[in-house]
Amino acid sequence: MIIFSLLKDRFKGMPWGIIVTCYAIIGIGLYNLYSATNASYNPSRFYDQIIFVLIGTIAAIFWGVFLDLKNLERLSLIGYILVCIMLFAVDIFGRSAKGAERWLVLGPIRIQPSEFVKFVIILIVARSFNIMKGFSEFSLLSLWRQIFYIGLPFLLILAQPDLGTASLVLLISGLQIATIKVRAKSLLTVLFITVSLSIMAWNFILYDYQKQRVLTFINPMLDPRGSGYHSIQSMIAVGSGGLWGQGFGQGTQARLNFLPERHTDFAFSVWAEEHGFIGCLILIFLFAILIIQIFQIADRARDSFSSLAAVGVGAFFLFHFIINISMVLGVFPVVGVPLSFISYGGTHMVTALSCIGIVVAVERKRHLSTTSF
């Protein structure tokens, strides 16, 4: 009875709306993966994804229920140091995949440290602002901590090279910074620096295949059998779905292997082809509900760390959704960004569910502090 009572107290104030929406999307993702990978013949990836969901759920419960939010804030710096060490290790010992060194191989386990950066950067940025409570307005100079925290993993990920994940790190932390009061002059300076660095990156940093992706994004027919192939096949798959779709397991682009990376980056294309416009609306609606609920929790949070952490989680899901769907529809370059809870992948699934754990911790803290008065 004592153990049951303690567990009951731990699960007070849970944001059940977010949890139900999250696992509804995961259910769709598993259903879609079963079809995309022909799991009736080779179910290994399907079973792997179920294991990833279970591991991610355990991580979410740990971060959200059994670890106090204050301790999560304290651990963020240690976590940041660890992921930076892992990124250094990737650059030295990493396993190459599709032209990029993004994996650490530990026996049978493959880890993509750049995914963990997204989780850690949310916490470290929130913590860095929380210790600067005396500032009513921020200048560019006063943001040196945040610039360092963001810049180091950004450069390490860019060196792998993984432009998509590096950009997401900037976008997630950028939205967190956008919620605080920053001087207009500082924003203009950042804009100028960003444009200048973009020009320099195009000329001196980006690899030829990355430039080709941008050019074929503007016109996929420039290289229909090369870098434009993914976009063209994805758009054919989405368009062939029509209103109601071709039915479960009946998508021709996926079934006949025309659609590349159909279980990872282009999982949404499989869903669109098999379930049509109506199916897409249902999935988009669920993601919209999830993201709106997360930002509502951020708005209700009682302290700056909680609020900024929840904003970061909202940004995590928002930008993954926007970039992946835009990529699938051919309105954004193919940059290898997964669709959270839908695309196959262990590291991203664990990271995404860990982010849900942050939101759970924020809402539980607000609920407990409200009921204590």
TrEMBL record:
Coiled-coil region list: none
Pfam families: FTSW_RODA_SPOVE
Entries under PANTHER family matching the protein: CELL CYCLE PROTEIN, PEPTIDOGLYCAN GLYCOSYLTRANSFERASE MRDB
Molecular functions (GO terms): lipid-linked peptidoglycan transporter activity
Domain of life of the native organism: Bacteria
Gene: rodA
A cellular component annotation (GO) from this entry: plasma membrane
InterPro entries in the cross-refs: FtsW/RodA, RodA/MrdB
Signal sequence interval, chain numbering: none
Name of the molecule in the record: Rod shape-determining protein RodA
Compartments where found: Membrane
Spans through the membrane: 14-34, 46-65, 77-95, 116-135, 147-175, 187-207, 276-295, 307-335, 341-362
GO biological process terms held by the UniProt record: cell division; regulation of cell shape
Keyword line: Cell shape, Membrane, Transmembrane, Transmembrane helix
Record's bilayer topology term: Multi-pass membrane protein
Keyword Membrane recorded: yes
